[in-house]
Design brief:
mainly alpha, rod-shaped
Length: 56
């Protein structure tokens, strides 16, 4: 029984999976932030083009 408990304590597979999950979550947050920033700028650009086309 003691060997089983020691094996469980030394098992790091779960910790590794959690670390990979956290890294993936941070990357997802960075991507979402970048897409929102670029999306806002892109929306402004299309609005400017639309206004220029309407005025000409």
């Amino acid at each position: 029984m003691k060997a089983l408990i020691n094996k469980f304590i030394k098992d790091e597979d779960g910790a590794t999976a959690i670390e990979y999950g956290l890294i993936a979550a941070l990357i997802a947050v960075a991507i979402i932030t970048a897409v929102r920033a670029v999306g806002g700028e892109l929306n402004n650009t299309f609005s400017d083009v639309e206004s220029a086309l309407k005025s000409s």
